[in-house]
Amino acid sequence: MPATVIIGAQWGDEGKGKVVDLLADRSDVVARFQGGNNAGHTIVTGEETFKLHLIPSGILYPGTTCVIGNGTVIDPGVLHDEIDGLEARGIDMSTLRISGNAHLIMPYHVRLDGASEMRLGRFSIGTTGRGIGPCYQDKAARKGIRAQDLFDEKILTKKIEIALEMKNVLLTEVYGVEPMDSQVVAEEVLTHAERLCPFITDTSLLINDALDARKSVLLEGAQGTLLDIDHGTYPFVTSSNPTAGAACTGLGLGPTRIERVLGVTKAYTTRVGEGPFPTEANDEAGKRMTERGNEFGTTTGRQRRCGWLDLVALRYAVRISGITELALTKLDVLSGFDTLSVCVAYRTREGEVLTELPANQTVYHGCTPVYDDVPGWSEEIVGVQDIEQLPRAARDYVSMITETTAVPVALVGTGQGRREVIDLA
Ligand code: GDP
Ligand code: IMO
Ligand code: MG
Hints:
Blueprint: E1 3-8, H1 16-24, E2 29-32, E3 41-44, E4 49-52, E5 65-68, E6 73-74, H2 76-88, E7 96-99, E8 103-104, H3 107-120, H4 132-141, H5 153-174, H6 182-190, H7 193-196, E9 200-201, H8 203-212, E10 217-220, H9 246-249, E11 258-266, E12 269-271, H10 284-293, E13 305-307, E14 309-310, H11 311-321, E15 325-329, E16 339-347, E17 353-354, H12 361-365, E18 368-375, H13 392-405, E19 409-413, E20 421-423
Parallel strand pairs: 1-10, 1-11, 2-5, 2-10, 5-7, 6-8, 7-9, 11-15, 14-16, 15-19
Antiparallel strand pairs: 3-4, 12-13, 16-17, 16-18, 19-20
Helix pairs in contact: 3-4, 3-5, 5-6
The structure holds guanosine-5'-diphosphate (GDP), 6-O-phosphoryl inosine monophosphate (IMO) and magnesium ion (MG).
């Protein structure tokens, strides 16, 4: 059975966790392929709420193998705590597997992330401060520490020593912050080795074997398309590729293994951190979305910026990842608006109307949205499971998205809970 990729089609926090959890019920393997604990994926089972940062959103189903792939970056302390925290809540962690090739976020990456943001001042990216960027930098510079290094205390200590030689110059001379002691860092990292090492294995082999055995495999993205380091709103992006192509390199499987690409989008738009956001609504409408959608970050608790649905950006996400189906989340949040604005094009500073996302960053920064106003609905729709029970205007809103993107909407979210969803597949 071919694999299914699930990715965010906006700026993250689209509800990927909920959608992965829904599909994981019928899956044998769920694998994360990029990002780290900058992600926060919320699952509300009905009775309980789980906020996952590194562990795949399939973990709540006993027997589902959950893989943290080579393309991710792992903070060993955070993962250790997450494993213990879930286990304490009765979740079976024996099915977790970690790629030995995944890079480890070191304490100096976290310090460098903070120092760099501080130095950038008003030009800062608004990162989550979790050391994601500096860790991926070291990976590309071939100075990274990998999960497999946890098996060898001597090698790990030496690598940290070499890495810190340069980092300490950067920390003290460039950023004017405290240096770090390599021995102390190595000892701290090694306190997690005993807990994490039993999970480390060849996860590429595991996934390919599962696919050969016709098992059902879900590939879970973090962040979203517009945060992609190549295709997003650079430099206001994360340091990995949250788009579908990265599922192959981030897990060690070929593109021929993937058949379905499910893009998750909110019925409106949110963004955390800095950077362009053409449909941002700094008015009563945006405030209403923040309140009704409870738009506060899962990882940092920051208030998310809110705005109208951006169909130009959504069509772009479809193009970049070859999305074959959409999951439309949080439709329930839009109840009570007389009209809903949807962005159908951008107007540049020069007055040109664009129906595709501009390839030039400066142009994008100057774009304002061209809106169509469509009818809203007043009825609350929380928990609706049948499309026929949605008000006419809500159904038309869903159809409008399918027509504009030429991609079918397979799922519609009508609440936080697992069962608060309309299945159209
Ligand atoms: P992720 O990072 O893409 O997994 O998304 P987050 O978990 O960071 O943010 C999405 C939030 O919306 C979470 O609190 C979810 O519980 C919630 N959510 C997901 N789908 C729906 C939905 O259809 N309706 C409502 N009201 N909330 C939803
Ligand atoms: P999930 O998986 C929303 C944003 C940060 C910042 C930028 C770079 O929950 O959708 P980083 O720490 O990655 O270097 O920060 O990316 N960002 C996210 N925004 N959801 C996320 O993950 C995010 N992960 C990173 O706010 O703007
Ligand atoms: Mg999130």
